[in-house]
Amino acid sequence: MQTFDLESHSLRELNSILHAQKDDTNQTSWEVINARGSHAIAVGLDAPIEVTIKGSTGYYCGGMNKQATINVHGSAGPGVAENMMSGTVVIEGDASQYAGATGHGGLLVIKGNASSRCGISMKGIDIVVHGNIGHMSAFMAQSGNLVVCGDAGDALGDSLYEARLFVRGSVKSLGADCIEKEMRPEHLEILNDLLMRSGADAKPEEFKRYGSARQLYNFDVDNAAAY
Amino acid sequence: MCGIVGLFIKDKSLEPELGALLTDMLVTMTDRGPDSAGIAVYGNNTNQLAKLTVQSDNASDDFATLDTDLSEAIGVTVSTRQKDTHAVIEIPAAKIAEARQILSDIRPNICVMSAGDSIEIYKEVGLPKDVANRFEISNMSGSHGIGHTRMATESAVTTMGAHPFSTGADQCLVHNGSLSNHNSLRRKLIREGIHIETLNDTEVGAAYLTWKMQQGSSLGEALESSLEDLDGFFTFVVGTKDGFGVVRDPIACKPAVMAETDQYVAFGSEYRALVNLPGISDARVWEPEPATVYFWNH
């Protein structure tokens, strides 16, 4: 285990050291202490390493992650795991706005609540939130899965493309072109896998599935006058 | 951007540290807006007098004989204490309106920062650490306070464009965001008799709350109605003589974090601003909900 103290060393040093790790590195386990809400911790990693951050983080923690497993023992500020490509990011506390935004792949787990715009424009990432999510979540989400064990706020899935949204609790309101859909066996299978991998205490059967009605992003001649 | 901090003290033993804690919080937020900074401190009033905090770009001339000139003009002895470009005039509350009127004649270059029983506002162009040092904010004690570091969007970088804005006795407001309907609302408020000094959007927000409270709303009710009447982006932190409130617009894209312990309620634009507060590791920390009013009273 390598320990890195952000009080005595700079953020840039931390990220350079983490960026220098190759696929075959022997230093696979890292601990970052005194995070104190700093921005951009462990951004842009591309190696199969584990990074544990003690304390809460600021903007963009774990952004653009590839391969790495990043654990935050605290809460995360705006844009956690933004544009993640692969790997895993786990937040023990809450996440601020636009968690997992534009993510292409990997798994983001938020054990507390996520605030507004969770999974906005997601492009293949899987996001599991053990608590609730705020308004405008999964806005224009294109693909991937958003699983919410608690409740969802206003305008869930507004202008949605092909992402799958699973909510166990209530949905305050659905956004434009987002509808409830039938839960088929293949969806229960996806959910089961994501709930297991994220350590969520919930059963797939307890969820409802929401998705795109596909009325908004397909050209409809009746709407021609609106263009 | 802009950075906001606020601290509302519940445990009196922490009051002597208010200025030092707020300064540290505000300096941490410097990179959210480095062009001007300001702090409002609600101090304890020991001598029954009200306070008029004024500013001048030519402080040495304007303040030199200010106490004797003003005392003579209003017929009551007033005392002043100067801090750099600002001075706090201690004066009976009933004489404040008259003193402001006379000041505009005898010291036309003086600007009024705040008036009230306990509020003092210090603000200038510059970095938070420099502004806080000039006014020795770290040495101030008080029951609550609000700080702001500005990245200007809606009006020029000037002393009067810095936050906090005070448009009523013991009231102040700081803002992160931008209001879109401030011009029409400014005209309406001026017609209602509210005094507005600048072309700044935030001052209109402050004046709106003052107007609502003049009409009998509580701070909480005034904040509720701001959600209806103000258009634009805002995270507001407001202070009154004994209250402290927070509200975010329904979109809530301007960041906000709050923390509460038995000793205090704290606000920061980011969690970084809160990390040096006593007992923060055991505090309840949360992100205030959109379109939801939070307020505390002593």
From TrEMBL, chain A:
Superkingdom assignment: Bacteria
Any one Gene Ontology molecular-function term assigned to this protein's record: oxidoreductase activity
Name the record gives this protein: Protein GlxC
Record-linked PANTHER family: TUNGSTEN FORMYLMETHANOFURAN DEHYDROGENASE, SUBUNIT C (FWDC), TUNGSTEN-CONTAINING FORMYLMETHANOFURAN DEHYDROGENASE 2 SUBUNIT C
UniProtKB/TrEMBL annotation, chain B:
The keyword Transferase appears for this protein: yes
Keywords associated with the record: Glutamine amidotransferase, Transferase
Pfam families listed in its UniProt record: GATase_6
Superkingdom: Bacteria
Cytoplasm recorded as keyword: no
Provenance organism: Kiloniella spongiae
PROSITE patterns for this protein: GATASE_TYPE_2
SUPFAM superfamilies linked: N-terminal nucleophile aminohydrolases (Ntn hydrolases)
CDD domains xref list: GlxB
Stretches assigned to the Glutamine amidotransferase type-2 domain: 2-298
Matches recorded under InterPro entries: GATase_2_dom, Ntn_hydrolases_N
GO MF term list: transferase activity
Protein name as catalogued: Glutamine amidotransferase
